[in-house]
């Protein structure tokens, strides 16, 4: 590094990567005492926020504390980044359209080991840490399981000292903030940063231009090479925003690098001076829309253009950043696959494959075969779904318009792949038909790009996220790809981080477990098995129940504060919280609630196990049936909760705006976890893991990771019902008739009759007719009626066991004790060993 001074050059002082003396001189060190933290909080309240520290408020001191914690994490991050360069580490780049980190303050304090220090510091200021932490808003960077899994994996990468980064979009607004009005979902903007976000670093230095539209020029250069130039494009700038992800008390901090869209022309002064004030800002508004909202509606063409633009925007900026980092130490691409691995989290980032090819061929001037060899040794693809609507396709005409060069590259990739299939001498009876099915280009009903096919062809690894799911994608969804790429498919079962979902969310249970299991079991979750003998200890079971009761009280207080309902603490807390979707079968749960209601009404003096049935989850704004199911849940709740015969026996509670921080309250209090999706449709699920880890018993189908949970926990400690995935397929093949099940089951027939007779919608006749029509007249695609009786009967077994609290508690302890496999640490270790080819680094603590 040199600096010009006058007419000559001056060499800057050099120092090794440890930089210890220099660090000490500039104060790059941590003071984690109470007094040190207090001093830094006051400094930020005064100097950063410009407020009087002598007037403490939860808001000002939340920001002051957050910035003081961020100071400590950035020191760790700098040391972590230095260690990557020192050790010449291979980097893992995790590309995900969404992350769902939740709130950062408490997680960061737990990871840094500063929770008690912060409590005391705030107490000295006359404040309470819990109240201060409530000021924070959940980060609006994700929607559901996909984003939460991504955040768990970054936590585990940091904790296991894996040299990794997360890449995504820094959304101004989350998908939406959910409110319930007259029983219906109402969406409002999720303005999660309206009061600032103290956790991020804006890196305006890393402003990457991203191109859209334009056209392609083809020409021959002076060396006779056919060249392609993407010209006359519209440019949008991508600004890096870093959010730090600390490891658990190991001195390691990594980061999510999220991209915010910035216009190349913020303000047109000429338009403004002519009075065209809106036109003066038009370019800024248009360009910055790209990072405005998570999952904008794509019902119209403009929405489709925006979604595709979002995917390319973050992929293009991320690849530019990855290449910038690689080129610091390398002049050629010979070592690129040895130093870089890019994990595609679902199909959203798949456009990265043609983008890397464009860079290597058009800009770096590599020949196609060399570039393709590099590309297919760098990318790995995680499939998260078998639902047809979730296997993305984009019309070729749309890609041609927005990304014309990429469409050419995709056609070329597919052409060469089709030629390669012609070379296979495997005796396939209909090779042309196979080519049609495997082609990246779908010809009908509209010529489109199959993004999952592109991901499979362009990656060296394709993994499912549960053993059952992986078998389905190999044998049902992509069987011929598995045949032609037999070593490419593998399984990595999902996991959840116990630091967030046990240590932070359930401190009472964590403390109880720590009495029985010495050492750092939170990072070695298989040690939970040591709890198993204590399930037979009556005294331990009493203490276990006390923890659960305390968590139920905390949730009851939250429910009272949020929606004004008093929960019956003696009732079983029966919970189904997840994205609202027909295949997840919240509707089946509602049918059971109505069945219980009818049984109590028929026998008011009878003995019933009391239940409080909780629902939570968002429906996509354009998903009519999911939104109608929410209305039905709330309509049933209105009837049940206002019927005197139900008092102390049955409650129905819908908690609006389900999010990570709400889940942290719900999951520790849950006693029965509803995991009742139609078998063969849930890829894995991670909510099922979080509930069982916290001692909830599961009622569920043999779907997703439930299958592996059953293997670990034991059938005697779960409540499994319903048809298997094979039986569901056989039922459909044989001509499934839902009327048959309705007519043979008087209870079911009565429940459906009540819905159709407007018992739950007296002021809005036929409101719920689409629901009964979907079940009885439109085929009941998700086999709700076929599984109804098995579900209701299984719930009767749940009631019987719950009445024996000693037995219920014994099973609860065993659920927690046998969840060691389902840590995201195990998942990430398998990715690192089997896919990424990386070793953990020495932690810089």
From TrEMBL:
Record has Glycosyltransferase as a keyword: yes
Pfam families: Phosphorylase
Any single GO BP term: glycogen catabolic process
Catalytic activity: [(1->4)-alpha-D-glucosyl](n) + phosphate = [(1->4)-alpha-D-glucosyl](n-1) + alpha-D-glucose 1-phosphate
CDD domains in UniProt: GT35_Glycogen_Phosphorylase
Known EC number: 2.4.1.1
GO molecular function terms attached to this record: glycogen phosphorylase activity; pyridoxal phosphate binding
This protein's GO CC annotations: cytoplasm
Residue numbers carrying N6-(pyridoxal phosphate)lysine: 690
Matches recorded under Gene3D superfamilies: Glycogen Phosphorylase B
Required co-factors: pyridoxal 5'-phosphate
Keyword terms: Carbohydrate metabolism, Glycogen metabolism, Glycosyltransferase, Pyridoxal phosphate, Transferase
Enzyme class, broadest EC rank: transferase
Protein family according to the UniProt entry: Belongs to the glycogen phosphorylase family.
Function, as annotated: Phosphorylase is an important allosteric enzyme in carbohydrate metabolism. Enzymes from different sources differ in their regulatory mechanisms and in their natural substrates. However, all known phosphorylases share catalytic and structural properties.
Protein name: Alpha-1,4 glucan phosphorylase
Organism of this sequence: Desulfonatronum thiosulfatophilum
Lineage per the UniProt record: Bacteria, Pseudomonadati, Thermodesulfobacteriota, Desulfovibrionia, Desulfovibrionales
